[in-house]
Design brief:
alpha/beta; Rossmann fold; 5-stranded parallel beta sheet
């Protein structure tokens, strides 16, 4: 299970023989789905090379506080903002002392000062150094500030001593890092979401479309990502920024969206169709702009029906857990429930777009979520709150926790 899917972890490496374990730690974190960046002190580079950690993490290794290239790309403040966790492993007695007293004289201590994410230290040192009153006082200060301590373990040490001070093994540290994050209800799931409107060309400058803003689909992409899923967002033309750690595919027409959905559904666990797909498109779309004088004051369009994207995906074998959206203006629940059986859906989200307080461009929504033998009303709330509730209901249905 990818317990660290979508998580960004900074591994700080300080000087000590246990630095060789940092390479394995990076591997184990990536095995659990994390994106990892390594930061090394000068002393750490005496034990293991930055090139090794770069090869394992797939990212450049950060070593210098005042590096003009790094500052131009990802400076130390930006790097601190990037991380969801800073894990210092090994954490030497010297580094623990500097961290406890608020030093900022190298990149790693500066990152810790600037960080707003959790910090954890994995101590590694001689058993006598570990037991010293100064070291224990420093660790107590870190604990009081909410910094987590992973280990150490007891056993034989490089110096020949036996006792507390060994750094925990990489698999233990990776599991303890994962334990710091909330349980993710969609961990390891692959989710594809369609969002926004489609545009159906009349000619190169005119099109048929609708008022969909894409806000609900983008909110669901963020909610699914936060629940641990790997998310692909297929978006029609909208003015919204791509959520972090979400893969985005931009499309224009319904046929474009269908092809992208088919391409992505092959390896998908959950398909959520929030897009407001145009029901019809012009039968013919000329390559040149249609001139007024060509129409004698009257323009006639012949429309043909667009493919039903969510129904097409629901017919695939194997079929992903398929969620549709129904935007209705009357008899909302009944129309939505008919669509469940007609389109072979596992769930549908129905909302009344005739209401003035919710709808396409609103930041709020109120919906009824229906499945074959049950339903749940989600009262008026922000689209982000609604999205989190929908994701929770999908997870319940997937795991069989919901009744009915």
């Amino acid at each position: 299970m990818l317990r660290l899917a979508n998580r960004r972890i900074i591994v700080g490496v300080t000087g000590g023989i246990a630095a060789y374990k940092s390479a394995e730690l990076i591997r184990r974190l990536k095995d659990q789905g994390a994106d990892v960046r390594a930061v090394m002190t000068a002393a750490a580079q005496e034990f293991i090379t930055p090139l090794t950690l770069q090869a394992l993490s797939g990212n450049p290794v950060h070593t210098t506080l005042l590096d003009t290239e790094a500052e131009a790309a990802m400076g130390h403040i930006e790097l601190a903002r990037w991380g969801d966790l800073i894990l210092i492993a090994p954490a030497s007695a010297d580094f623990i002392a500097r961290l406890a007293h608020g030093h900022g004289n190298d990149l790693l201590t500066t990152l810790c000062l600037a960080a707003r994410c959790p910090i954890a230290v994995a101590p590694a040192m001689n058993q006598a150094m570990w037991a010293s009153s100064a070291n224990q006082a420093n660790l107590a200060q870190l604990k009081d500030r909410g910094i987590h301590q992973f280990g150490p373990a007891e056993g034989s040490q490089a110096c020949g001593d036996v006792g507390l001070g060994r750094m925990l093994e990489a698999t233990q540290l990776a599991d303890m890092a994962a334990d710091l994050f909330p349980s993710n209800i969609l961990t390891g799931r692959r989710v594809v979401i369609t969002a926004g409107p489609t545009r159906e060309a009349i000619d190169p400058v005119r099109f048929i479309s609708n008022h969909s803003s894409g806000k609900m689909g983008f909110a669901l992409a963020e909610a699914a990502r936060d629940a641990g899923a790997q998310v692909t967002l297929i978006s029609g033309p909208v003015h919204l920024a791509t959520p972090e750690r979400v893969r985005r595919i931009d499309v224009i027409s319904a046929q474009d969206m269908l092809q992208a959905a088919l391409d992505q559904s092959i390896q998908t666990d959950i398909f959520i169709a929030t897009a407001a797909v145009a029901d019809f498109r012009p039968q013919n779309s000329p390559d040149q702009k249609i001139k007024k004088q060509d129409n004698s004051g009257v323009m006639t369009l012949t429309l043909v029906e667009n493919p039903d994207i969510v129904a097409t995906i629901a017919r695939q074998q194997p079929k992903p857990f398929t969620v549709g959206f129904a935007a209705e203006t009357r008899d909302v629940v009944n129309y939505a429930r008919q669509k469940i059986s007609r389109k072979n859906l596992d769930m549908i989200v129905a909302n009344d777009v005739s209401r003035g307080d919710i709808g396409f461009n609103s930041d709020e929504n109120a919906v009824t979520v229906l499945w074959p033998n049950g339903e749940q009303v989600l009262d008026l709330a922000s689209k982000h709150q609604i999205a989190r509730s929908i994701v929770a209901l999908i997870a319940q249905r997937l795991t069989g926790q919901a009744g009915g």
